[in-house]
Amino acid sequence: MFKKKSKIEKEAKQSGIKNIFNRYKKAPIYRPKSTSQIMKVFFKDYHESSGIMQLDDEHYSVVFEYQDISFAKASEEEEISIFLKWVDYLHTLNPKDHIQVIHAAKPVKTEDYKKQYIYQEENLYGNKLKIAKEFNNLIQASLGDKEQVLCETRQIAISTKAGSFKEAQDVFMQYQLKMEEKFKEIKSKVKRVNINERLEFLYDIFNNNLLKDANIIDVVEYAKNNNLSVYDVIASKEEVSFKEKNYIKIGNNKFIRVMCVAKLPKSLTPRFYNRVTAVEDGNIIITLNITPKDSGKVQKMLDKKISGMKTERLEKVKKALKNNYRYEFVQDEKLEDSIKDAQELQEALQKKKQKLFGNNILICIQAESMEELENITKKIHSIGNEFLITIYNLDWQQLEGVQNVLPFAWNTLQFQRSLTSEATAVNVPFNTKDLMHHNSIYYGINLVSKNPVFVDRKKLINGNGCILATSGAGKSFTVKNDIEQVLLRYPNDEIIVIDPQRRVQAFNRCF
To answer: What is the pTM of this model?
Structure first.
């Protein structure tokens, strides 16, 4: 049967590259046909005891979770100190490896979450019960009335090229030791994320319900007991559609969109990252993809590039002299700017001990409706416009975008921007430290993160406190609230009040 040749194949034949066309035509393209196969896009295998995942035949990844610290409201001196220490950490990275810095939100059932903070009313009577109910109303209002609460998590995923799990484990152990040392200097703590937590993260992305709703505590154990693969367990139980160019639809109640930061201004501050990670009422994942480059190769490339541009400029100068006019009056501004930028980069690498990194910033939005998805998208664009940053959707690359935004340390997107250490570190991945101790005392709302503040002062290095405010601002009322909560939460503790003005004497009647 005669078949009409495609236009591309005809052009390939005419241009003498038919063999190249045929080679690419025969190249296998992996197209997942089921939700279980979609999960295989993210990882190939895993090592349960070490938390390491094998991404493909030769790449492995591990994830570390780190604690946030107070950066948004720090003094200028503290900000500079944190920034420089973050630069030092980036300098410890191996040019053969890739890291992701991820800010995400983990969904938790609101009712289960509230139980960790509200006062138990079962054994309370009289005034104690009345006061406990008042505090519980305040706490529940601060936690919201949605079905799920989004708990912030900050992670660093690292991938490396290795021949086996054992070889990868040795590399990641060195990274963990370096990370613990550097983050200790920043006053943050680091812990390795286990396999079950990593699988749960993937499950939460592609499912409308939580693992707990499916009565699954351990994904690996559940898969073994039910003769299933982990891909079958974490795969979406509803249809996953990639028909639209700029979002993924899961069932009828979940929409996912991945966006990429396309253009940055000449100067940028850490405020953009802080703002976009603190968007209210949005389930958003922000991922910084960072790939160190070999300094030796970069230097050789720069030398060659500068030499080539200077040669080009010399030819233009000769041409100008030949035509009896000065080059300065007709110089190629674009060429001169390129030479200047390359020389500045060369100076930064040689004299300022900077390194070069490949970068991109990805933003993943999860929503329960198209309306919510569009509203959050507008908020992201608004923040970008405020900082003169262009953000666009990854059209027809949504699955690859999700693959690169989740904590697996994939680095397959072609869009990469080369930045020096300081330019890379400008998106300092810290914002504010949230204090949310379980079964502790409620102190209000964190004005930066908008999360409630729950503190057990016994768990702090120093449990002392001081309340400062202008006259009439409510210092005495705050102390009274504190005393009430101490009596409710820690009934065996002693409270000694020194009150020359007798402002808290009414407590004898309440308790």
So the answer is: 0.84
